[in-house]
Amino acid sequence: MRSIIGSLLNRAPVNYARDAIFSPVFSPSRNQRTKELSTMEVQSTVFAIVDRISSTVAANEWNLYRGGDVAATPSQEDPAAIVSAHPALSVLNNPNPHYSRSRLFESIQQHYELTGEARLIAVRPKGLDSAPPIELWPIRPDRLRPIPHPTEFISGWLYKAGMHEVRLSDDEVMPMSRPDPLDPYSGIGPLGALQLDIEGEHSAAEWNAAFFRNGAEPGGVIELDEESPLDDPEFDKLQEHWNLQHKGANNAHRVAIVEMGQWKERKMSFRDMQFEQLRRFTKAQIMAAWTFPKPLIGDVEDVNRANADAGIAIFAEGLLVPRLNRWRELLNREFLPFYRKGGRPQYHFNYADPVPLNKQQEGQNQRLQALNVASFVDKGFDPAGVLEAFGFPAIEWLGPPKDRFALAHPPEPVAETPDFGEQEG
Fold it and tell me: Sheet holding 117-123: strands in order across?
């Protein structure tokens, strides 16, 4: 969202629109974006990765904090600065009558993973163009195109679905994208680099399916005598009988009885044996493009507890945190300013840190905290208050160390000598 002053001062230094200024349709083409969005339905590895990332991003917690400066890390945020009621928070948690916040985030994240582009529509009350948005909606990136401007970089957006077209202002669309090195108006996703690999894997899958669906060869061919060829009725009869007895997966490995020819065994070719390796290679390529850790995709081959924990940490630090940072930038730079009345920012959004603590580091932190508790208690602070301040549960206090041994090992009672008084000799 640009301010009025910003729109006057922040001019584009060069003509980013190039010669296509009058056309809102840029590369990649609309068909390419649609194809990328549909890949999740036809490629199992892509589905698993995109679903895991988008659902995990959507499930992450968000808070609105007082103050305009975002903490360096979410763990450094002051819990006392959390805002529980704000119009922006209400719209984000209930974006529209049909979407929850998690569903909105998951839909947008799917678009981002598949195409490298994600667009969010801000809907204002009718007739109140300067009012803050009251609803948020996801929009398919293959149906939305930027309209470039020679001096202002972008003048708006064009939504097109079939014959239906709607022009949207720059402030109505909140974009999030992975920058395309060749097109400042577009985004880039991993599927562009994986296109040939996925097409090859898909062709291999179709070949295997066709083998079981149409296969009419139990490992060989029928060789006929050239000197006595079959006429058309005889050939049709032979083909009909062969298909009836041997075509399809249910008839695999049946013994062939050949009346009008000679059976010649056929060995599996090297090409046939490479299909399984091809599919494994494609899976590895897809995981590499997303830098997705192997244990989190359900592949437990060569996986132990150590590299499984490392995979979880890599997923959180390498995949979730960069994506949550993009969301944080979108919310604080594009969405929250709608509710600002001028001056410095008074609030900011931040996410809950998804990175799990290293178990060894966590143990060291607990030992350090315990030493801090002991230090404060030794200096005379109230033990119960110190435990609460450092986040430890309340435990029974047995007193200083010098008194604990006495409480745990009380002295044995000494038998008293009876006093019989003075006795006469």
Answer: 135-139, 117-123, 173-177
